[in-house]
Amino acid sequence: MSETTNDVNIRNVCRYIFMLNAKIDHLAEFKTELGTLSREQLYIVEMISEEPGLTQKTIIGRLNKEQTSVSRAVQTLVDQGYIAKRRNENDMRASHLEMTDAGSEALAELEPSICELSENVVEELNDEEKRTLMDTLRKIQVQ
């Protein structure tokens, strides 16, 4: 394969990733009694739900986002009542993030919508294609 053909294929992969990302952004806005969650806010809430006590620093690393962006998202989630901050007694600069009862209830109510969004994104794929996609996405994420 020539270098030019390889470059075109890589650009196409990047273009399709971008288009998939845009499709998900368009579909992923979740409304609850507490407020509307963006996709990024939903990811943050899900991470905190799965691992209570996470710090913003951990979330910044996992999302590979700027500190200010994550700080704004976390503060919005606190203001809307999804999560609460608990100061680290050993390091006053750090806060541990935990779900509120209302946030946990809202996340549970959103579960069917989240599953529906996921199904809509991959509805044209058979089971083997879905497995291959997941394996590929895991490889990309690890890098």
The count of β-strands is: 5
CATH architecture: Orthogonal Bundle
Helix and strand succession? HEEHEHHEEHH
Main sheet attributes: strand count, strand direction, barrel closure: 3 strands, antiparallel
CATH superfamily: Winged helix-like DNA-binding domain superfamily/Winged helix DNA-binding domain
Spans of at least 5 consecutive residues with low confidence: none
Determine the N-to-C terminus distance: 25 Å
* Bulk shape: globular
Physical arrangement of strands within the biggest beta sheet? 3-5-4
User: Structural class of the secondary structure composition?
Assistant: alpha+beta
- What is the class in the CATH system? Mainly Alpha
**Number of helices, counting only DSSP H or I runs of 4 residues or more:** 6
> Portion of residues in helices?
55-70%
Work out the count of structural domains: 1
Taking Cα atoms only, what radius of gyration do you get, to the nearest Å?
18 Å
Quick synopsis:
This protein has 143 residues and is of the alpha+beta class. It is 68% helix and 13% strand.
